[in-house]
Amino acid sequence: MFKIPEVPALLVERPIKSLIVSDVHVGFEEELHEVGFRVPSQSWRLIEEIKQLIEKTGAKKLIILGDLKHKVPGTSKIEWRYLSSMVGEIRRMVEEIILVPGNHDAGIGKILGDSVTYAPSRGFIIEDGEHKVGLFHGHTWPSISLSNADVLVMGHMHPVVRLRAELGYTIRKRVWLNLETERALLVRRLRRQQCSKVPKGRLSLLVMPSFNDFLSGVAVNAVSEGRELLGPVMKSGLFDLSKAEVYMLDGTHLGRVSDLREFA
Description:
This protein is of the alpha/beta class and 264 residues long. Helices cover 22% and strands 25% of the residues.
């Protein structure tokens, strides 16, 4: 499993070459229109970018870690009219599309039918050669089975860093977060009880940037005591955000979150 340079996506080579993206939020423009912002349609552009990535990488499978659609609750006109055909265009390029439903994906089955495979909302595991990768969206706790993974991958947070320039303006950049915790701590939390056999070792968590570049997210170097964090895993404190390693889309290592707070 490796990150694709300059792109908020992962590529898994085995057992079948798979492209992984998260938080596409098709139809988000309609929400902006409702509050008076007029922006050109962006959803078709996002779909075209996914298609280009599939063609570039030769991926045979597309895995979406939640929030393919945007409106919640309910479904927007854009989603009803176009999401099925958007997914249909991608489906013709791959053998399978797997969707891990996110908190924005309620009712999506009525739109897409059987054109995609619906994974459990609490995630599933794929084996990339010798490693087990646990995939989930992040709005719920992962399944206990994911505690057996070597690395967990989630979306949901839309992590960005906020950097303040000398002239006073700020910029926000999408980033990857790499965190660690003791595996036993996660297992105990998921089972809600003491374990007779406590697993040893550490467990990594990779938080993906949002594929949708138009939507902002949690400025990880500007949160106060974790109040703005999203999802039970991040809010639980099992993973120490201040120690998270931060990487930009081009692979630049910015250091830990704690190193970046003074620049927010």
